[in-house]
Structures are given as structure tokens and as C-alpha cells.
Amino acid sequence: HNLDTGPAAKMMHRFFVSADCIQQDAIVVSGKLLHQLRHVLRLGKGDSCIFLDNCGWEYEAVIDRMEKNQARTTVQKRRPAGGEPQTRITLYQGWLKGSKFELVLQKGTEIGVSAFVPLLCQRSVAIPTPESQVVKLGRWQAILQEAAEQSGRGMIPTVQPAMLFPGACSSVGCFSLLPWEQERTVSVHLALKNKPKRRCVNLFIGPEGGFSPEEVELARSYGIRTVTLGPRLLRAETAGLVAATLILNE
Question: Helix, strand or coil for residue 5?
Fold first, then answer.
């Protein structure tokens, strides 16, 4: 699934930058990224790193000048960014307590999930307020970017505001799977077997208490297929990571 950019490129530090930082054959950085380059990583003139535009391109650049308010680099190579899977997975994850959702975001990004949607379900233990969602979305964006840089992704996954489960079911427009502990026969492999190669898969994972039977029936009425992940009962923060891995493997 990955584009091999070579051992040297993989060892370099990787940073996502906004479009206004890219100036033809130069990239100019300031603010928090400048602080990270200078004071955290101790990079200076002559050091190389990789910048990503979050549109599918990466730029291998050498630092020319490290000034007080900005660092200027010269682009040596421009190439398609690697690290993106051929299949786009949108993970509809039931809202989780504490830092569990952050774990799903981080590890899901490393695995190859392309988008995350928090779900509010009948058995959700914690229901966020609109104000807390705004705060969490900002933190989640930072987690996604850091995980994408660390794992060699070419693009930062997106995260959307929370949705009610019925609304999410009615909005899906491509092939969708819902792992359910009471499904006994259809595995991820069987669900995808003899199907045209899927470029887009929606994955529904319940909260700590799982999906209610009524929610499962509602999902099925919208064409969402239930699948089993095996004989063991997985935690809510584990199930989505396992299912996403199985889908990408298929």
C-alpha cells in the first residue's frame, strides 16, 4: 500500500505545513514549528527534513537560514507522499470515556484510517456538551497531525463533530460494516470476499456498552452489514483498530 521513498527519507523528521509556507522552491516556517525545529529538535543550517502539504505531496528540503522569527529552507525534491492506503476507511466510533477516544485516533491514524466520526449511541456512557466538543476537536486535531507525522502518512485524517447513530446510518453512501458480538457467521473476510475492490469502507463501532439490538436492526435496514471479529469480546477502543487492520489487509 505504501510508496517507498527510500531509507534516507524515512529517517528524516516530517512536518505538515500550510499552503502559505510553500513558496515555489522554498518553504518558510515560523511560530510553533520554528520553535520545534530550533529548541526541541535542535536543527540548524544544513539539516534536512520533509514537509507535507496535506494534499498528497511531500517536499524534501534543507535548512538555509535559521532566523529569530522564521526558518527558510530550499526544496531539493518534490514527490507524491507515501503512507496512504488504497482503501479509505471512515471509522464511526461510539463515544468513549476519558482518553480512550484519543487512543483510537492515534492508533487508527498509524494503521491507516482516513476519517473519524464520534457516534452518540443508546448505550453511550458519557454524552459531551457542545462546548466540550469544541475543546476536544482542537486537541484531537493535534493528536491526528502528530500521529500522521510520526507514522509516515501523506495526509492528516479528518475528525468530524459527533453524530447521533440514526443520522450516521442514514448518511453513509458506500459499503459499511458493523462488528457485533452476536454475529456468528460473517467475518470481515467473508463480507469482502468476491466483491469489487473497495476504495471506501465505513466502519461502525459501538461505545463501551456496545450497540443495542434496536440499533443493529436500524443499521441493517440501511444496508450496513454485521460481521464478527472472532470468539473473544473486544473492548470498544480495540475493536475498531482490529477491524480496520482486517479491512486493509483484505
Answer: coil
pLDDT values of the chain reduced to their tens digit, one per residue, 250 residues = 344 444 444 478 999 999 889 988 999 999 989 898 988 989 889 899 999 999 989 999 999 988 889 899 999 999 999 889 999 999 999 999 889 999 999 999 999 999 999 999 999 887 778 788 888 999 999 999 999 999 999 999 999 999 999 999 999 988 999 999 999 999 999 999 877 677 899 999 999 989 999 999 999 999 999 999 999 999 999 999 999 999 999 9
CA-to-CA separations, 238 to 107, 108, 132, 152, in angstroms, rounded: 10, 10, 24, 22
Length of the chain counted residue by residue: 250
Global confidence as pTM: 0.88
